[in-house]
Structure formats: C-alpha cells, structure tokens
Design brief:
With about 190 residues, the protein is α/β, with parallel strands linked by helices. The protein is built from ten helices and eight strands. It has helices at about 25-30, 60-65, 85-95, 100, 105-110, 115-120, 130-135, 145-150, 155-160, 170-175; strands at about 10-15, 15-20, 35-40, 70-75, 105, 125, 140-145, 165. The longest helix is centred in the middle third of the chain and has 11 residues, at about 85-95. It starts with 7 loop residues before the first strand and ends in a 15-residue tail after the last helix.
Length: about 190
C-alpha cells in the first residue's frame, strides 16, 4: 500500500459501525485557549439524575459547571437515546443557566458520525463506552469517569493510555491536562 496513506480503522457497536481514516496529528491539533470536550453518553439510566439535565450523570454535570467558560461540551448520546437529543438540548436550555446551556450541545453530536465528532474534539470523556478506544486511536486524550469503565479499561488506565477521574474537579483537571500517552499501540484493528 501507499506509505503516505492514513491508517484505516473500523469500529462501532451492535447499533452501528463505521470505517474511517485516522487523521494525522496536525489535523486534530487545536489552537487557542478554548477546549472542545466530547462526552460519550452511556445508556445506563441509573447513573443519571432525572431532576437535573436529563441524560447527564451528576459528576459530569458538575464538571461542566466547574470547567472554564471557554470550554464547549459536545454530548453524543448513546444510539438508543439519540431520539432524545433535541429534547435534551431544549431541557438544558430551560434547566441550566444560560451561560452553561450555551456551552452544551446534544443534537448535533448525536446526528453526525463518531469520527466526525472526534475531529471536532480536543479530548473525550466517557463512563465506559467502547468508543473510548476509538477516540484514543484518533490521538485524543480520553478520561473515564465511571467505576464500570475503571474496571473495563483497567489495563489501559494502568498503562497510561486512558485516564481515570471520578470526582468533578479531577475530571476537569484531567481534561485540562490531556495527559494520556499518544497511541503507540492502537485498540481498534486498523489494517482493514
């Protein structure tokens, strides 16, 4: 094959898959002081507080509140919740103060493909989504915030490929640092 061609990966879940090129590091670099965080939603209902913003775990919502004003949060809903994206955007605008609701987007990230979301993002936060592996392979720092994810990704966390942070202040600090090692070994099969 062409030595200059970008590596190709395939990924996804039972609800949908994809194949995409892994962009070169220069294509995913971000400039300026603002940061775009992609939150990969999980379909675990018990982890969410229905009295707050629907579909956001309490520690993630608090991390959003604590994050710098320049940060934008893209919330990609789990495919089984995707039809709720527009309602979630509307509810966020009703429940949250305007300065926070303007920083969170549910609908757009839930409509576009995962690779497109990753290209818009500087870092990724998730509870235990397998898409964390794809995000890592795209060269993005990934923070895991849920105990299930800590268990599932234990080896990758210990190796420094993923970061675990559960408390809101620790989540914000980990996302700010972006301290995971770049992908020297890919999670997802890339020889397709």
């Amino acid at each position: 094959g062409d030595p200059n061609a970008m590596p190709r990966i395939a990924g996804g879940s039972l609800t949908g898959g994809f194949a995409a090129d892994i962009p070169a590091a220069s294509e995913t670099d971000r400039s300026g002081s603002s940061k775009t965080v992609l939150y990969l939603h999980q379909g675990l209902v018990s982890a969410y507080d229905p009295s707050a913003v629907p579909l956001l775990p309490v520690n993630v919502l608090e991390a959003i509140r604590m994050s710098p004003d320049g940060w934008k949060w893209l919330v990609r809903l789990h495919p089984r919740w995707a039809e709720s994206a527009r309602r979630a955007d509307l509810t966020a605008s009703e429940v949250l103060p305007a300065h926070l609701s303007r920083r969170i987007s549910f609908e757009h990230p839930s409509k576009i493909s995962l690779p497109e979301c990753l290209q818009l993002s500087d870092c990724v936060l998730t509870g235990f989504s397998a898409s964390a592996c794809v995000a890592h392979d795209f060269g993005l720092p990934v923070v895991i915030h849920h105990a299930i994810g800590q268990e599932l990704f234990d080896a990758a966390i210990k190796e420094g490929r993923l970061i675990f942070a559960q408390e809101p202040a620790a989540i914000v600090a980990a996302l700010a640092r972006g301290g995971a090692r770049p992908p020297s070994e890919l999670f997802v099969r890339h020889d397709l």
